[in-house]
Design brief:
binds zinc ion, 609 residues, Arc Repressor Mutant, subunit A, binds adenosine-5'-diphosphate, alpha/beta, globular, 4 domains, 29 helices
Length: 609
């Protein structure tokens, strides 16, 4: 019998397990139940795929992501694994064929949609082959929780697996880790006896950056041109209208950009998603409707032109970058205007008051994160209850360019008392005019030249004042009154500042003071980042990618199903001369070596000549 390690090497072409993978594989292969919590890109699939290959019979994988099953099965087939799927997208004939393969014991892995698995006929059929069931894998297990946004009622009925197949091991997997969801998964899926494998949710290959909005489109363009000229990525916007406008504008600027939102025709959505998955270097401009079930491993960047709704949203949306473990960038531009529109959206929604209150608190937590001067990796993880992460990750703006702060107690007092004196009825634009002592129509209309705060703030520019106001809102000293069209109001927390009992330190916006970039010496991620960046200009790299695309087109699969970027990078860096040398590279198992080894060796040979 093979060992887990042998399968890892021969079939998947990887040299070593990652993190908890080996422990999970051994536990499940030995017949134990497991609950696996691992971040996106952590390598959950191997946790059930290898035990399914090690154990006798077929592994049944339950997944709600019907759109992904085809690609998953294609990827396994490329590895020489006998895999198939059953869901509503198959015609009756094909479904019958797959069912026959299942019953005759011809499959290693079968992906099924939950409603199909739970149908009476299917369960009865499984009972007939119950001693030929290697395991049940329940992917996206958080779908059982009604608190998440992905609740699937059918998932509740999956306890039937435990009742009817008590001897078949079950492994539930999710990238959603908060404690209430975890408890609910255990309870709803009857996994009390299961061993829990909890990984860190850090995504060390993702670089986080948050910047102040200041002509967001141009900032986005600068970011894309400087760092991602040929890469696939996602640009998130809040509204459908903005999605379409931004996509059209990027196209005008020469980018291969496509829109995606729930209001588009289903066929267009489908087509755009397909192009994003199958082609190289497509930029998807999208609302949050895009993402769930997007399994593209080489999304190199995620940009936010608008704020997400919460830290959870931010983590999830940025988490779609860099699933393959190669360096990925996330970038977000935000300003006070975003806070106003987000609050407006929450308050004008028809959720119950209690729910709105929670949503506003979540938004506040996100604002705190945006303005934080600490390591972003650390701050994110702390929010999710993970402590003990060393700072200075080298992969976030705050660590790469330590933020300058300044003693702003006096300025905060001016800003707050200006709000107070003018009756808490005005937005930042007008308040700043008062502080700067401008004579505008509105100032004359309200006689604000008579306020004691009129003209007391000439030491700062209007940009600096708007930075002060933004940060006071983020710190909870001011709130934005949405019904009052974005007017600012004092909170209780402002009192001690006004009374001189509390000091205020604010960050200096990057645009205001340019500090020299101070890079920490990097580890693996930095090296990879450099390797990837230089690869992008290497003609051999382009030739390897072209070969991959050609093979992918021939077979009607996405390029990454042939080889991941990381594997192409291995080829580029090691320049194997023989099949044997090539077989040693990470990501090249026996099946792929046999199938594609020579084609890629030829590309290398041609290039040398
Ligand atoms: P998840 O489902 O947790 O998001 P995947 O199972 O899709 O993650 O794995 C993410 C990526 O990491 C895939 O490209 C996969 O091939 C790769 N990977 C997983 N395990 C290993 C390993 N032990 N060594 C190298 N690459 C791995
Ligand atoms: Zn950091």
């Amino acid at each position: 019998m093979s060992s887990p390690h042998q399968i890892l090497q021969d079939v998947f072409g990887y040299a070593a397990f990652r993190g908890e993978q080996q422990a999970v594989v051994e536990h499940v292969a030995a017949g134990g139940d497991a609950l696996v919590l691992m971040p996106t890109g952590g390598g959950k699939s191997l946790c059930y795929q290898i035990p399914a290959l090690l154990r006798e019979g077929v592994g049944i994988v339950v997944s709600p992501l019907i759109a992904l099953m085809q690609d998953q099965v294609d990827a396994l087939t490329q590895l020489g694994v006998k895999a198939a799927f059953l869901n509503s997208s198959l015609d009756a004939n094909t479904a019958r064929t797959v069912f026959g393969q299942l019953m005759r014991g011809e499959l290693d892995l079968l992906y099924v949609a939950p409603e199909r698995l739970l149908s009476a006929g299917f369960l009865t059929a499984l009972e007939q082959i119950q001693d030929q069931l290697a395991l049940f894998a329940i992917d996206e297990a958080h779908c059982v929780s009604q608190w998440g946004h992905d609740f699937r009622p059918e998932y509740r009925a999956l306890t039937v697996l435990h009742e009817r197949f008590p001897n078949v091991p079950r492994i539930a997997l999710t990238a959603t880790a908060d404690a209430p969801t975890r408890r609910e998964i255990v309870e709803r899926l009857a996994l009390e006896q299961a061993r829990q494998f909890v990984s860190s949710f850090d995504r060390p290959n993702i670089r986080y950056r948050v910047t102040n909005k200041n002509n967001a489109r141009q900032q986005l363009l600068a970011f894309l041109s400087a760092e991602h000229p040929n890469d696939a990525g996602i640009v998130y916007c809040l509204s459908r209208k903005k999605v379409e406008e931004t996509a059209a504008w990027l196209q005008e600027q020469g980018w291969d950009a496509l829109p995606y939102h729930a209001g588009l025709d289903a066929s267009i959505r489908h087509q755009n998603q397909r192009r994003f998955l199958r082609e190289e270097g497509v930029v998807m401009v999208a609302t949050v409707a895009f993402g769930m079930g997007i399994d593209k491993p080489n999304v190199r960047f995620v940009a936010h032109l608008d704020l997400p709704k919460s830290m959870e949203g931010y983590y999830q949306e940025t988490g779609r970058a860099g699933r393959d473990g190669l360096p990925a960038n996330t970038w977000m531009a935000y300003g006070l205007g975003d806070v106003v529109s987000m609050r407006q959206m929450v308050q004008s929604g028809d959720a119950p008051e209690e729910r709105k209150r929670v949503e506003l608190l979540k938004l506040d937590a996100l604002l705190g994160f945006c303005e934080s001067t600490e390591c972003r990796h650390q701050t994110l993880l702390r929010y999710f209850g993970e402590e003990n992460h060393a700072g200075n990750c080298g992969e976030c703006d705050n660590c790469l360019t330590p933020v300058a702060t300044w003693q702003a107690t006096r300025e905060a007092q001016m800003a707050l008392s200006c709000v107070y004196r003018s009756g808490q009825r005005f937005g930042t634009g007008h308040l700043i005019d008062v502080l700067l002592g401008k004579t505008t129509v509105r100032i004359e209309q309200f006689q604000h030249q008579n306020l004691s705060t009129f003209g007391i703030g000439k030491e700062l520019t209007d940009k600096q004042w708007s930075s002060v106001y933004r940060q006071l809102v983020a710190a909870g000293l001011l709130t934005v009154d949405v019904e009052g069209y974005g007017s600012l109001q004092l909170t209780e927390a402002a009192r001690p500042v006004l009374r001189g009992e509390r000091d205020i330190w604010l960050r200096r916006d990057a645009e205001v003071v340019k500090k020299p970039r101070e890079r920490r010496t990097g580890e693996r991620a930095d090296e990879l980042r450099a390797a990837y960046a230089s690869a992008n200009e290497d003609p051999l790299w382009l030739a390897l990618k072209a070969k991959r695309l050609e093979l992918a087109r021939e077979q009607g699969v996405p390029p990454y199903v042939i080889f991941h970027d990381s594997t192409l990078l291995e080829i580029l860096n090691h320049l194997p001369q023989t099949l044997e040398e090539m077989g040693k590279l990470s990501g090249i198992g026996q099946a792929k070596l046999a199938r594609y080894g020579n084609e890629f060796l030829q590309v290398l040979a041609k290039h040398e000549a």
